[in-house]
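User: Can you fold this complex?
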Amino acid sequence: MIKIEHLVKNYGANCAVDDISFEVGKGEIVGFLGPNGAGKSTTMNILTGYLSSTSGSVSVAGIDVLENPLEAKKHIGYLPEQPPLYLDMTVEEYLIFNYNLKGCKLNRDKHLEEICEVVKIKDVYKRVIKNLSKGYKQRVGIAQALIGSPEVIIFDEPTVGLDPKQIIEVRNLLRNLGRDHTVILSTHILQEVQAVCDRIVIINKGKIVADEKTENITRAVENNRRFNVKISGPQKEVLAMLRSKPGIVYAEVLSNRDGDAYSYLIESEVGIDIRKSLFYTLAEKKWPLVGLEAMGMSLEDIFIAIVDQSAPKQRYERKGARQRNVKAAAEAEVAKSIMEKTDKSQGGKYSALFDDEQNS
Amino acid sequence: MFAIYKKELRSYFINAIGYVYVGVFLAAAALLCCYTTLGSQSYDTSTYFTMLIFAFIILIPLLTMKLFAEEKKLRTEQLLLTAPVSIWEMVLGKFLAAFTLFFGTVVVSCINFFPLYSYARAERANESYSVMHVGPVTAEILSCLIGIILIGAAFIAIGLFVSSLTENQLAAAVITVAIIAVMLVLDMVNQFIDVYAIRFVIDWISVMSRFGSFTGGMLDFSAILYYLSITGVFLLLTTRVYDKRRWG
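Assistant: Here's the predicted assembly.
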């Protein structure tokens, strides 16, 4: 449905988008992530024909956006970061204006009513947009993008400024839209991506650094082997026991202390659940287990790790608590695995080159 | 294009600006008519039209200042530029909306000529022996109307172009006022220049000097072409502004 090939966009000497390629299939919901200034909005603006690209091609529904922008734009509904609302119009007038602007051929009243039903703005239909709350304004913006039932819908941060209930409503809406539209969603709220998207594309400094199915990333995150255990007992002996225990590949003392209990960080071997056997061992030695906490990685952490890794100059080298370093290393590992996979699917600018040499 | 045209025309009357424009235009026209034609107790309308063109210095920026500047400020231009509408259609839609309002007001301001015609009829009834033409010269009025409408179109195109350069409506208005004022005053400055070559060039580009033939009841083809060219060039420049932004 959407095909971006070797897209480059320079603003003078400044390179906003640097040779990115990806495809989005029909009915897919793709989350487009990246820190501020990564090139998300630029990419979206090029996709919608608002900006031109320096080089590379972008096509929507098989139509090249640069060569035939008018035709391509007919297939796109776009909600920019700031909803483009004429504040002095009523919702009705605004939607009718958009309907006419897009040269929509569907039955007007029926179509607009359906859209209002979907985004739930029927009760403010006759009101002036200026007087609406932010949430309603956002929804009117979403309604605008849906007019003409375009095959591709692009949302730039659609839930900014909404209250939690509205956020959930909008997410549900997006998920429903994904059934028969192709949706691209730009955001920096990770739960949103996790909740809504089939696929996540992370972009940093104009390059795609990760492109992975959401479930794979989630699995990588949940596949957790690190625990923070609190054991009451002599510190040195406990540590020695932990280090020698089969199934544990790494153990260290953490700084926080609670009475006579110390905290330890342990990492188990792949595929082993260390918790039960650890409990019995400790019971044998009469060292009470006071606490056991999985050191979870959040999607945020992975995201930060990916972004950090893709920008080697700003590498994570904070000399904070050791716990943090160990955690960071773990995150970096997951991030790296995702990025390597992406690199291959991106045509493997570096690794594939290497593979080719080996093959020949 | 039609959607944009309709929207712009509508927005003139949702905001006060459309009413302000129409009101000021009609008031200025009526006042000028009183002080020039009626005041001098003649049927000559050429001074009236010439003065009316000077009123455009204030009137035209009222029409054009918000056309693009406001869209830019509210970021609604993104909506227009991502809609399946070409840049030309967008610019033309806006231009035509402003022009329609301008044209309508000019037509309404023709009400000022009624006293002339009704007075002329009364006078003719009294002096039935007169062989001279009594009353306003309709051909002159018509050619002047065509002239000011073309000048208005050219100024609207200039205002539109200025509006596309900034997102500040006030700046757009002030710059448009300045440009139109300079274009109109150029003709007056000309009297003080001794060098013929410079005078010739200024005379050639001056909007007012070309209006002279219209006040004589003539449709000067070169003048018409000149005004249409200004309109065309500035509309083209406006589209280039948006093209350049897209490619920049």
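Chain A touches chain B at residues 11, 48-52, 70-71, 73-74, 76, 78, 80, 82, 84-89, 93, 97-98, 100-103, 144 (CB under 8 Å). Confidence is low (pLDDT under 50) at residues 313-322, 350-360 of chain A.
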